[in-house]
Amino acid sequence: MPRILVTNDDGVHSEGIHALAAALQPLGDVLVVAPHTESSAIGHALTLRRPLRIEEHGAGFYAVDGTPTDCVNLAVAVLLKNELPDLVVSGINTGWNLGDDVTYSGTVAGALEGALLGVPAIAVSLRRTRDYVFDFGPSAQAAALLADLVLQHGLPDRTFLNVNVPMGVPRGFQRTVQGKRNHITRISERMDPRGKPYYWIEEGIDEWTAHDRSDYHAVKQGFVSVTLLSPDMTAHAGIDAFALPEDAAIVKVAEIATKKA
Ligand code: MN
Fold first, then answer.
1. Of 94, 83, 47, whose CA–CA distance to 67 is shortest?
2. Most exposed among 44, 65, 225, 253, judged by the fewest C-beta atoms under 10 Å?
3. Is the dihedral of CA 10, 123, 110, 97 positive or negative?
4. What is the dihedral sign for C-alpha 39, 44, 49, 51?
5. Residue list, CB under 5 A from ion ligand 1
């Protein structure tokens, strides 16, 4: 039986992770290790300045008082005794992780950590609803179909799938590329009872640079968007397209170093 590690950023008590774990059960031994409390938009953070604890929450369910990245690492080192799982699946997040948002996402980071450990991984996100009531059925089934294929065929080395599911019954699956979001972050200033200002980062107005192959376009058309992501953020296409100082200019750097020494 393949071993499947499940994590998320909405927390161990979220409905999405329970739906995901249940849908993956027929495919292997499922181990759920997720943050104790919600840690959405925590990105790929690793907790280094305080200790972490693992708490059992029923058979196969564990909570860590840390980030999704902490969860994956503790799951492998402690619960799996340094044996890698065959697959990491992160989600199901209540809200899409499309385009540039993948850089903020704790859900995506959970899968990214899997890829860095050399394990094929999948991040799954569902469209957010206004009243926060979700039907996780179709997205959990879509995740199980993809998980089954990844277990059979694997993924290219150090890559993972970012999966976004539309509301309702999807029209199919589409291979997509990460879209571009023109994000205007809105920060609202308020006053505390002592007259000092404090700030809330609000979800701003998003504009999308629409193109046919983008993740955003696919979900808007009712398809499950499947993007192959890589931890390598090198802009390979532009690798020689910026200026560097002349070699001789390194003398100036050396001078500074000598003065300091
Ligand atoms: Mn979340």
1. 47
2. 253
3. negative
4. positive
5. 9-10, 40, 93
Locate 4 and state its tokens: 């499947």
Cβ contact 158:116 at 8 Å:
yes
For residue 128, give the nearest of 260, 259, 258, 219 by alpha carbon: 219
For residue 41, give both structure tokens.
């938009």
Answer for the pair 85, 31: CB distance below 8 angstroms, yes or no.
yes
From the centroid of its chain, how far is CA 54? 21
**Ligand 1 centroid – CA 14 distance (Å):** 9
Q: What is the distance between the alpha carbons of residues 68 and 74, in angstroms, rounded to a whole number?
A: 10
pLDDT tens digits, one per residue of 167-190: 999 999 999 999 998 777 889 999
Residue at 114: amino acid letter: G
Q: What is the pLDDT of residues 96-154, one digit of tens each?
A: 999 999 999 999 999 999 999 999 999 999 999 889 899 999 999 999 999 999 999 99
108 CA to middle of ligand 1, Å? Answer: 10
Tokens of 202: 């609000």
pLDDT tens figures, 10-69: 999 999 999 999 999 999 999 999 999 999 999 999 999 999 999 999 999 999 999 999
Asked if 248 contacts 168 with a C-beta cutoff of 8 angstroms, the reply is no
For ligand 1, the distance from its centroid to the CA atom of residue 246, given in whole angstroms, is 46
What is the Å distance from ligand 1's center to 110 Cα? 11
The continuous run of DSSP H or E covering 143 comes out as: helix 137-153
